[in-house]
């Protein structure tokens, strides 16, 4: 099983192709970290380096996030999807086999790597891999990719990763963007050296970062900026302390950047409904390469019911677009921390039918995934060394204030964000540093709900597998592979 990318491609609807902006970011770099910012598709990149952390710029392409890299010498510029649901870095999807004509054209703007043009010189090709992707419970998401491998220098911001191994597509189906994978290998885990030295491992070995740690700052859906901070934490982008959670295995026992969540809830017009998650409903993967969040029915239905969502004939949920403007939120309890996701992030700014917008949740009977529709509301620091994830409510209270992580088995320091409740990315009552409820597992696939009034307290290797208003909207699903994970983009046609 691999990660999923589910995105809504507005350019398909508008009949336009969004050109990639190859203004290459400058990294904010310091002792032990590299920070590469992320921005919109039509904005110039910026990046800085300070105290050895690297801030890597991401492009918010409406429903997926990309970063620019340069490979070889002279540099060949490529735009890659940033994916915490997969481990491999690969390039050169077969644009001719992209899911739509629009995506064929978009694929062509993302750049290609030609080994013979590199004077580094490039090493390869060597080895090969065939990987299958998709939600096992949804055959419409299944896709595959065939790779061979090269080694060359890769520039990220102003940091150069020497002799990095990466995949190049021999054949692909349903893909239009290469992948910059940041997850552990599904088989060998956090070792980072199998099947080759993964990017985060190489950055550590070459002294670019002090520990295999990175922070993900996606911002909300209306934002034009964001960042991946390699080897550091930006205190100006979250509220309160970071809650440390151990990573958990995926649904098939594979290594993942996954955690357990205790509760979910919804706040509408000051009325808060919270329910505990039990059994497998608690297990989620954190995947920046997936747009729409995928939940089991018992976990998702209370939220969808509270939103008044109606299901179309293809299984997608629609609500009145006016919901996006309401001061409401959906909450997720991470241990003692509650992350509140505003309706404006969870409900996508796209009218699938007259006055009806798509809710960023779909149902699965397989691996649960928190995608970008949820991750945008949180600040997440992923720690390979201690196999943990640190979580806080996202905010924005000024310029970068980056703290580099230290060396060792538990490198993430105990830090408190600079931001206050007023700096949260939305307003929906007070933001709390603790969760209201804790869950007690009693059985798999069930949940218990409680009601309360007032304001909410917010606080690849080998062959692998990686898922109402129906009369008014046609929803067509195409698959898009991510590096060590599945991926598919949802194209909505009015």
Helix percent reads under 10%
Distance between the termini: 32 Å
Radius of gyration: 21 Å
Biggest β-sheet description: 15 strands, mixed
Give the tally of β-strands. Answer: 33
Strand-residue proportion: 35-45%
CATH architecture of the domain at 1-261 and 369-425 and 468-494: Beta Barrel
Q: Return the structural class.
A: mainly beta
Helix count from the secondary structure assignment: 6
CATH superfamily of the domain at 1-261 and 369-425 and 468-494: Acid Proteases
Annotated CATH topology of the domain at 1-261 and 369-425 and 468-494? Cathepsin D, subunit A, domain 1
Spans of at least 5 consecutive residues whose pLDDT stays below 50 are 1-25, 39-51, 427-494
Mean pLDDT: 79
Choose one word for the global shape.
Answer: globular
Specify the CATH class of the domain at 1-261 and 369-425 and 468-494.
Mainly Beta
Could you walk me through the main structural features you see in this protein, from its secondary elements to its overall organization?
The protein has 494 residues and is mainly beta. It has a domain at 1-261 and 369-425 and 468-494: Cathepsin D, subunit A, domain 1, CATH 2.40.70. It is 8% helix and 40% strand. It contains six helices and 33 strands. It has helices spanning 10-14, 101-109, 199-205, 297-307, 343-346, 372-375; strands at 28-40, 49-57, 59-60, 65-71, 76-83, 89-91, 123-133, 143-156, 159-172, 178-181, 213-217, 225-230, 232-234, 238-246, 258-260, 263-268, 271-277, 283-286, 293-295, 310-311, 317-320, 329-334, 337-342, 347-353, 356-359, 361-363, 369-370, 378-383, 388-394, 402-404, 447-452, 474-479, 488-493. The strands form seven sheets. The protein has a 15-stranded mixed sheet that branches. Strand 24 (347-353) and strand 25 form a beta hairpin. The chain is globular. The protein starts with 9 loop residues before the first helix and ends with a strand. The model is unreliable at 1-25, 39-51 and 427-494 (pLDDT under 50).
């Amino acid at each position: 099983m691999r990660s999923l990318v589910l995105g809504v491609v507005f350019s398909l609807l508008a009949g336009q192709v969004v050109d990639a902006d190859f203004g290459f970011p400058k990294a904010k770099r310091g002792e032990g970290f590299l920070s590469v910012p992320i921005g919109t598709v039509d904005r110039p990149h910026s990046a800085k380096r300070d105290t050895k952390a690297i801030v890597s710029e991401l492009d918010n392409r409406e429903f997926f996030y990309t970063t620019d890299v340069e490979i070889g010498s002279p540099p060949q510029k490529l735009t890659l999807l940033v994916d915490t649901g997969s481990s491999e870095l690969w390039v050169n999807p077969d644009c001719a086999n992209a899911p739509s004509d629009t995506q064929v054209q978009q694929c062509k703007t993302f750049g290609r790597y030609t080994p013979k043009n590199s004077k580094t010189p490039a090493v390869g090709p060597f080895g090969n891999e065939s990987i299958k992707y998709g939600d096992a419970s949804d055959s419409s998401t299944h896709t595959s990719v065939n790779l061979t491998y090269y080694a060359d220098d890769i520039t990220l911001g102003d940091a150069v990763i020497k002799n990095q191994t990466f995949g190049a597509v021999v054949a692909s189906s349903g893909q239009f963007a290469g992948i910059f994978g940041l997850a552990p290998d599904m088989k060998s885990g956090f070792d980072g050296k199998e099947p080759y030295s993964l990017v985060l491992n190489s950055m550590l070995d070459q002294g670019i970062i002090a520990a295999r740690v990175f922070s993900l700052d996606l911002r909300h859906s209306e934002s034009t900026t964001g960042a991946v901070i390699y080897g550091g934490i930006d205190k100006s982008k979250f509220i309160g302390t970071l809650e440390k959670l151990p990573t958990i295995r995926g649904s098939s026992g594979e290594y993942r950047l996954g955690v357990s969540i205790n509760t979910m809830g919804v706040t509408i017009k000051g009325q808060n409904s919270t329910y505990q998650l039990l059994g497998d409903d608690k297990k989620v993967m954190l995947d920046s390469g997936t747009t729409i969040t995928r939940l089991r029915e018992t976990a998702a239905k209370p939220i969808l019911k509270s939103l008044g969502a109606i299901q179309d004939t293809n299984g997608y949920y629609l609500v009145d677009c006016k919901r996006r403007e309401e001061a409401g939120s959906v909450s997720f309890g991470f241990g003692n921390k509650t992350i509140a996701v505003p309706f404006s992030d969870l409900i996508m700014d796209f009218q699938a039918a007259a006055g009806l917008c798509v809710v960023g949740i779909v149902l699965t009977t397989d691996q649960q995934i928190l995608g970008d529709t949820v991750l945008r509301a949180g600040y997440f620091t992923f720690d390979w060394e201690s196999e943990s994830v640190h979580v806080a409510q996202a905010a924005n209270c000024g310029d970068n204030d980056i703290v580099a992580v230290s060396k060792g088995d538990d490198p993430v320091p105990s830090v408190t964000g600079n931001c206050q409740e007023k700096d949260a990315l939305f307003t929906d009552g007070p933001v709390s540093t603790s969760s209201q409820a804790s869950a007690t597992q009693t059985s798999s696939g069930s949940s218990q709900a409680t009601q309360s009034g007032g304001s909410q307290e917010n606080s690849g290797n080998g062959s692998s597998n990686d898922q109402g208003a129906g009369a008014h909207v046609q929803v067509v699903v195409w698959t898009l592979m991510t590096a060590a994970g599945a991926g598919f983009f949802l194209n909505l046609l009015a």
